[in-house]
Give the backbone structure.
Amino acid sequence: MKSTQTFASIITIGDELLIGQVIDTNSAFIAQELNKIGINVKHRLAVGDVWDDIWQALDEESKHAEIIIITGGLGPTADDITKPLLCKYFDGKMIMHQQTLEHVTHLFDVVLKRPMIERNRKQAEVPDVCTVLKNDVGTAPGMMFEKNGKLFFALPGVPHEMKWLMENKIVSILSTKYNDSFIEHRTLLTVGVGESFMAERLIDFEASLPQNIKLAYLPNYGMIRLRLTANGNDKDILTQTINEQFNKLKLLVNDVMVVDEDLPLEVVVGNLLKQQNKTVATAESCTGGYIAHLITTIAGSSSYYEGSVVSYSYNAKEHLLNVERNALEKFGAVSEETVTVMAKNILQIMNTDYAIAVSGIMGPDGGTTDKPVGSVWVAVASKEKIVAKLFQFRFDRLKNIQLTAINALNLLRELIVDKH
């Protein structure tokens, strides 16, 4: 199945991106929005606030893509050089855009109730060769240019402003102009099989895929997302073809599949609890509330999540979770006995249907010969059953905490679906 593909390049501008002071989330969002309308991202490039570097990036990326989207450098400060550069790049001259000036003036006079200085007023200046894209949620307008049949978009680097312009302006423009190709994704989540073993398991399946469908392995924290991506010009045929291949893939990994959607584990567990009208509470030691954090990042989690006790010390475990001091001294905080009691007692204290308890040694120090760094006991409980499991992680402190949380949630998922 042949497909006519449209390609885009994303250029993010700012020294703060190159030194790691700011993480580039804009590119990820833009790529996702483009992908939804069948546009492939060819390159993602970050450049500093350097005139020659930005100019070179525009030249180079326009050789590879029909669409170039730029974010950053449109603000009112001296290092915001994108707008004057674009003015020169497209042989324009700077003019005051009256509608933008009225919008900026309204923001300062009515919304912000602050005086507008000349720097703010200059944000309404644009190259006369651009199409202005009104930014309803900020002061810097978006801009669209065309050169040699290529479309260039300049967006503010402020994430919520960039997102608004992508969703409310650019997607509709591109959907109208480039409506001859489609992209479909299907993603599932597996747990318990390493990437190399999974690749070996799927070697024949991957080799048999149609030319327009590709399989990607996305490993993370003991899990792998498997994603099929298909390109084509006929949406109905494309959907049918990728669904057929996805069903084959599901059969091949059914024993380790968590969910056949692109969902994080905390959402999967939350959905199971909501479907069964059940509740959960957590008792955390080594994760310091990170499991609670993951659960409560999901909107609506209050319907199934009761709360957490972060019992880091012996005293906290004794007085908040009723773990006997003698047991703590005999078995230690990092033990099957301790997490089992923690899970059992938080279940009663919070009066929930399920519970999670964790206790471990996250590192970089604190380990012993018997209990090295990365040793973690996890227990999950219902009113009828308690399951405890020892994990041995081998990474830095933060990753060990994240791995503990993910594995604890998965252990709870298995208890809920009764895999034990």
The chain has three domains: 6-177, 183-259, 265-416. The radius of gyration is 27 Å. The chain is about 40% helix and 25% strand.
